[in-house]
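Operator note (shift B, R.M.): manual run for YheC/D like ATP-grasp requested after the automated queue skipped it. Running by hand, logging everything below so the morning shift can see what happened. Input copied straight from the record, untouched. If output looks odd, do not overwrite the archive copy; leave it for review.
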Amino acid sequence: MAEEGNQRKLFGIATTSLPIVRGAKRRPAFHYVRIARAAVRQGLDVCLFDPHHVNWQTATVNGYVPERAQVPEGNWVKRTLPLPDVIYENVYVHLAIRGYSATLRTQAKRHHIPLFNPMLPGKWKMIAVLRQAGLSDATPETERVVSSEQVIHRVNEWQTAYVKPIGGYGGMNVYRIEQLRADQYRVSADRRGAEGGKWRKVMSESQLRTWLRRRIGGYLVQRGLKLLSIGGRKVDFRVVLHRDEHGEWQLVGIVPKVAAPDGVVTNIIAGGERVPLSRLAQMAEADGKAIPLDALEARARAIARALSRRYATTALVGFDMAVEEDGSVKMIEMNPKPARSLLEGTMLARLAEYQAGFAKFLTK
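Run finished. Output pasted below as returned.
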């Protein structure tokens, strides 16, 4: 089918979550159906494919397309197609970290195929990017861990500090260190991988120094923020943005995450809880507090613009943003592949429209 006399562009979505038989039809996860519907409105054809199912020598891809492009909620069929004109890399974060999409990224660049959802800087490089963009105040004071003495000095100065892995995600191995009194510290974690889950331990300075030695080089130390507390529990905000068909950043949604009592992080997988924004606003009002939504969005947009100036095909970002008790807004960290599970229906519909729109933008 032609569009204005030209062949329709092919929008490829790289994923390991391929269509499976659901009832009498083979269909992908519903968000891909949403994207395919939006793609039709942008004049694009959609193909889902595993990054390993591309033959770069023959310039073809084995993937799945809706049997009827106008009805993506129907059956999907497997086809051999020419290389896509644009690619959205949407492989699970743990696979991406292990390099599952590395060849796809390299070859897409070699074949001059724009690919969005690029590899973005880790926590430490992100700090450098923001400093270079004049946004040093966008994050809490952060340093790379170079010695036990450095961390202990910062804990003594700040009273509370977080020690977190440079390449971590999901709240894994994030530690909160609090000074209780001279020569006594409390170290807490909610997720520790093979070492187990929730963990709390009181240490002397000597014990803390020994414990910290194993984290030199691969960890950051960050000032503990005085997070806004609502209903007696700490809260932060996932602010999700995506670029649209004009390449402009748009807000997908703001999702509050409430930590468990004494929780170290607000990640849902680590014991946090997603709370609807309307409900949290009511809870805040009952506490005599307000949520600075405009400031959260403005700060997130400024950071996103700085990223896309540096990494041209950046399209989807999720920032964990903090509001301190004094009302100041900081970015705790960035999620280059924010979980869709945090988003509710209207946000997901908005996201799909922006994803198809940005794909169209890149084909131009």
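Quick read of the result: The longest helix spans residues 345-363. The radius of gyration is 22 Å.
Leaving this for review. - R.M.
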